[in-house]
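User: I'm new to structure prediction. If I give you an amino acid sequence, what do you actually give back? Let's try with this one:
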Amino acid sequence: MPWFGTGGNSSLRPESAQSITASIAFDPLPDVSLSATYFHTVFGQRIQAVDLSANALDDSRNDWLVTRNIGSVERRQVCDRSQFAGLSDDCLNADVSALVDLRLHNAETLKTDGIDVMGRFPVNTRFGKLTLGLESNYVLRYAEAPTPTSPIASLLNQPHYPRGFSRAGQYRLGRA
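Assistant: Good question. You get back a string of structure tokens that encode the predicted 3D arrangement of the chain. For your 176 residues, that looks like this:
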């Protein structure tokens, strides 16, 4: 019988991120500007809830969560830190084939990079100066490894994940 451990995890660490950006800007005319920015960001140690399938004990991708051949020290730690419906001696002597750690973990890695482009163009109207803007983002990569043992896999253009190309217009009316 497997034993599923839940609750707090004192070994959680803060999530981390490393980013690199490079930009170029061009102003060909007064009040006209064009720019492009490349970004590359790696999010590490993302805190992740464990989502196991029914065959979790048979799936080698879950080996980092499973302890087999439980010794008396591991058994004592689990019994001391868990809620057990029964007597503490029953906990220490229960027939357990594996311990599965379902607590939150620093598990996921996410890598993304892409290009942001922006243009601003003024238009004079009888009401004042109107600034038209166009901003767009092209995602080159959006990939994650949900566990420390998972390979990194692309999620770009998948349902509920970023599309490779997006655009947003911005219009402002005001006096110069």
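You can read the tokens as a compact description of the fold. Here is one thing that stands out. Residues 2-174 form one domain.
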